[in-house]
Amino acid sequence: MAESISSDFVKRASAIALEAHAGQFRRDGTTPYVRHPEAVAARVAGDPLAEAVAWLHDVLEDTAVTPEMLRSEGIPEEVIAAVAMLTKPDGADYEEYLRAIKANPLAKKVKLADMLSNLGDQPSEKQILKYAKGLTILLT
Predict the structure, then answer these.
(1) pTM for the predicted model, two decimal places
(2) Exposure on the CB side of residue 24, measured as CA atoms within 13 A
(3) Running DSSP on this structure, what letter comes out for residue 25?
(4) Which DSSP string do the residues of 119-136 spell out, in sequence order?
(5) Average of per-residue pLDDT across 27-54
(6) Burial class (CB in 10 A: 0-12, 13-18, 19+), 120
(7) What is the extent of the structural domain holding 56?
(8) Distance CA 140, CA 123 (A)
(9) What CATH code is carried by the domain that includes residue 66?
């Protein structure tokens, strides 16, 4: 039964992401944005909490979804907290942001998967340097 409950909130998380990111595209202008959270979720497959966070990791930052909306959909508080942590506040220092993520194992796991996904998606030289710095912070 626990597996059913887990798969239920992961399914809700993916449905929320699909709806929230509808009409958004990746940097190439043609790939639906939701392919990114889908790829991040695939990198953490087998860990339902991480899968849910992966699906939702950009919804607070890039859509109208709020933590209250996630709560009302039955998303676990641990998932909501990690998603909120992954939402970089405007003007926040990148290194401080990553150090905070590093302290939360669930957020860290998803952020690493996010960075790896972004590195595999034709990043610019500037993005490669940013993710290299980020990976160093998270992994040391």
Answers:
(1) 0.92
(2) 17
(3) B
(4) HTS---HHHHHHHHHHHH
(5) 96
(6) exposed
(7) 2-139
(8) 23
(9) 1.10.3210.10
